[in-house]
Amino acid sequence: MSLLGLDVGTTGCKAIVFNREGGILGQGYREYPLLHPRPGWNELDSNQVWEGVKAAIREAVAQAGSADPVRALAASTQGEAATPIDSQGRALANTIVTFDARTVPQSEWWASTMGKKALFAITGQPLHPMYTINKIMWWRQNRPDLYERTWKFLCYGDLVGWRLGAEPVMDWSMACRTMAFDLNRKQWSSDILGLAGVEERLLPQAAPSGTVVGKVSAAMAAELGLPEGAAIVTGGHDQPCGALGAGIIEPGVAMDATGTVECITPVFDHPVLSDRMLESNLPCYIHVAPDRYVALAFNFTGGSLLRWYRDTLGKQERDEAEVTGLDVYEIMIGLAAGGPSPVYVLPHFTSTGTPWMDTEAKGAMLGLTLATTKGEIIKGLLDGITYEMRLNLDCLDQAGVHINRLRAIGGGAKSPTWLQLKANIFNRPVHTLSVSEAACLGAALLAGVGVGEYANLDEGIAQTVQVTGCYEPDPAETARYEEAFQVYREIYPTVKELVHRM
Description:
The chain has 502 residues and is of the alpha/beta class. Among the domains are: 2-234, ATPase, nucleotide binding domain (Nucleotidyltransferase, domain 5, 2-Layer Sandwich), CATH 3.30.420.40; 304-394, ATPase, nucleotide binding domain (Nucleotidyltransferase, domain 5, 2-Layer Sandwich). The protein contains 20 helices and 25 strands. The strands form 7 sheets. Strands 16, 17, 18, 19, 20, 23, 24 and 25 form an 8-stranded mixed beta sheet that branches. Strands 1, 2, 3, 5, 13, 14 and 15 form a 7-stranded mixed beta sheet that branches. The chain has a two-stranded antiparallel sheet with strand order 4-7. Helix 10 packs across helix 17, helix 13 (315-324) packs across helix 14 (328-335) and helix 16 (416-426) crosses helix 19. The N and C termini lie far apart (58 Å). The relative contact order is 0.13.
């Protein structure tokens, strides 16, 4: 029997059917628009997302064929994004996604009412406007009519499971991302919900990842081409699911995912709630693997910086890609100059991620001259993204989370140039894997364990995850990048106040 892993992201959904050995039998993908009804507001229409999810599942299942029917499915999903649902199953408003800016007042209220340290001690989440509880509070305060008609506030994992036929159940990793879940007691926090004025009945039940919560309904099975009665299993937040799909369940190894967001996800065996973690805005929350925890070190801009270059400055590269059939990013990276670029790029084009979490930050380019080449600019973009993640690795190390090696997934894992750059700047080995769609594979592994296809995650990983290559740091290049990194780390503190005034 095969397993279906979903990855429901901010701009698109993937569905992949895997066999027991991790081989891809079929896959589907659909995009949906990010909506901006007001400045600073970022939303999704959950109905459009659901139609995209269904279309992706249908495509994947059709490609896989009927020889190896899907036994179970689970979803890896974007964090924090919440949708209010009424008792008839209708969405009462669009989903407010992670980086929507309207909830700053709610975050400021928490800072003055409970304080960052107390919140972190309970939830493992450094205070920020993005968390789900702030979005629910915003609806309660600004749309009381909507709030009163809401049956449940659902994130995308529990929303998709419910629409497929299960009761709405949120896995623990996603529950942690609401900033309303007690990390140590593994239950909704009555203290936080009480202060927020939110009744627990408005939230779904919480359960560990890999829990069977229902079966695909007959109607959904017929519509999507799934076997009637296929099990619905709790998945998890996308980054921990990606780490699981990369085979990371032990300390010392971290996932490095390069997509729209660049994210490093290490794993450890006990909660790390040190002052240094809080000072660096590094969250600590429950992994999708049992008795494990993760942190997230991330840059919101990440790989989307290359998309910005492609769409804004890269017409020549786009034209070349259209003529030659080559990947436009491969062409761009091929133009990148060798060695540390004299152009320093601060990759804060969509505010910052960790450690700064500065919603007012902006990107910057420094070191431009009339002799600056296109290749130096492209290399500066790659260097800047990677320096920012090196900064985060240093913060993790200082907080007591030590990383010896990384496993690369996502679009950036397809570029040997970028992988070697990461190894040199991080001064750590970077491994590649046989399956780049690790979030879908992680969800599929959880589905497999849930229905007993694997005895445990160790067996599932052994069956499906293979390291295919390793990029070792070059000592001479590492020394050159270390010198440039010492310059880079001074840029944000130097320009911060000026950018805020701008």
